[in-house]
Amino acid sequence: VQVVESGGGSVQPGQSLRLSCAASGFTFGHYALTWDRQPPGKEREWVATISTGGGAYYADSVKGRFAISRDNAKNTATLQMNSLKPEDTAVYYCNIGNTRGRGTQVTVSS
Q1: Which residues contact 5 (CB under 8 A, 6 or more apart)?
Q2: In this model, does residue 27 exceed pLDDT 90?
Q3: Residue 13: band (very low, low, confident or very high) from pLDDT cuts 50, 70, 90
Q4: Pairing of strands 66-71, 56-58
């Protein structure tokens, strides 16, 4: 079972990034998928969840700016992040079932 995030980077406020999550070793479509993040020096916080049926749920802090999606045929998911703010700076993790990836760093700074 493996979950791998990619797509992080350094951007300026207002710009966008698209994170990807690739999973293998289990039946991807049977699990809800969650993105969470850990800002520097802070606790981990929930960002978004997509259900097996495609229902999407967001933290208030990202609602209207982030969009979560999944492709069960490709065992992948994405987190489209628009209008990024400095407070979005964090390591972002993809979680499926009991498996979490190693994370991808997102830095938003002018």
Answers
A1: 19, 20, 21, 92, 93, 94, 101, 102, 103, 104
A2: no
A3: very high
A4: unpaired
Q: How far is CA 91 from the centre of its chain?
A: 10
Give the amino acid at 108: V
Contact present, 59 and 45 (Cβ < 8 Å): yes
What confidence score (pLDDT) does residue 1 get?
85
Q: Using one digit for the tens of pLDDT, what is the confidence trace for 30-88?
A: 999 999 999 999 999 999 999 999 999 999 999 999 999 999 999 999 999 999 999 99
Q: What CA–CA distance (Å, rounded) separates 68 from 80?
A: 6
CB contact at 8 A, 50 and 33: yes
CA dist 24 and 78 (Å) reads 15
Q: Record the tokens describing residue 41, joined without a space.
A: 């020096």
